[in-house]
Amino acid sequence: MERFPIADADAATRLDERLGEWARAWTGEGHAVTIDHHAEADPTGHYHWLVRLHGEEKDVVTVWISLRQRSVHVETEVVPAPEMGEEALYRYALVRNADLRSVHLAIGPELAIYLVTALPLAELTLERLDEIMAAVLIYVDELYPTMMTLGFPWYRRRRR
Predict the structure, then answer these.
(1) CATH number of 9-151
(2) Which phi-psi region, left, alpha or beta, contains residue 42 (left: φ > 0; alpha: ψ -120 to 50)?
(3) Could you tell me which residue, 39 or 22, shows the higher pLDDT?
(4) What DSSP assignment string belongs to 90-116?
(5) How far apart are CA 16 and CA 57, in angstroms?
(6) Amino acid 1: pLDDT
(7) Is the backbone of residue 111 left (phi > 0), alpha (psi -120 to 50) or beta?
(8) What's phi and psi for 159, nearest 5 deg?
(9) Mean pLDDT of 32-53
(10) pLDDT single digits (tens) 81-120
(11) What is the pTM of this model?
(12) Averaged pLDDT score across all residues of the chain
């Protein structure tokens, strides 16, 4: 079994360059993308980026990318912890999870619902990054209105 090297500052620099290259391509296609990066590792040795995308249903989709020991972890909050209708919302999330590709739904420690994925650093090519970010954006736009309606009865979907 091949083991990937442990991520370090050089891996973080390469990932930062790859994210920048990806963002320039997406921006060139008319998508709004901003990236914030902490150059130093956190106390656990992980490096982090915040990628902000413009969504249709949710104005801003913020994606948290973490370079961990041997993998890249990607997550975004779809909806916060529900105020009501938890059972219906979580049931909907479980049913929808079966149809998702590249990412999956998860309940966070604060009971919010996230789209998440993780993959080895060596597998994060521009094409794979593009696939993951497109899936995040598409699924957030697809899931957000229904999940907000189920978890927040006062929520009214705006029509664009």
Answers:
(1) 3.30.1460.10
(2) beta
(3) 22
(4) HHHHHHHHTT--S-EEEE-TTS-EEEE
(5) 28
(6) 45
(7) left
(8) -100, 130
(9) 89
(10) 999 999 999 999 999 999 999 999 999 999 999 999 999 9
(11) 0.88
(12) 89
* Cα separation values, 49 from 60, 65, 68, 121, Å: 15, 5, 12, 14
Backbone angles phi, psi at 76, to 5 degrees: -145, 140
Q: Where are the domains of the chain?
A: 9-151
Residue 104 structure tokens = 């999956």
Alpha helix segments (H runs only) across 29-115: 86-97
Angle, alpha carbons 136-140-143 (nearest 5°):
135
Q: What is the pLDDT of residues 11-25, one digit of tens each?
A: 889 899 999 999 998
Q: In degrees rounded to 5, what are phi and psi of residue 120?
A: -60, 145
* Tally: H helices and E strands in the chain: 3, 6
Q: Where are the alpha helices (DSSP H) in the chain?
A: 9-28, 86-97, 126-151
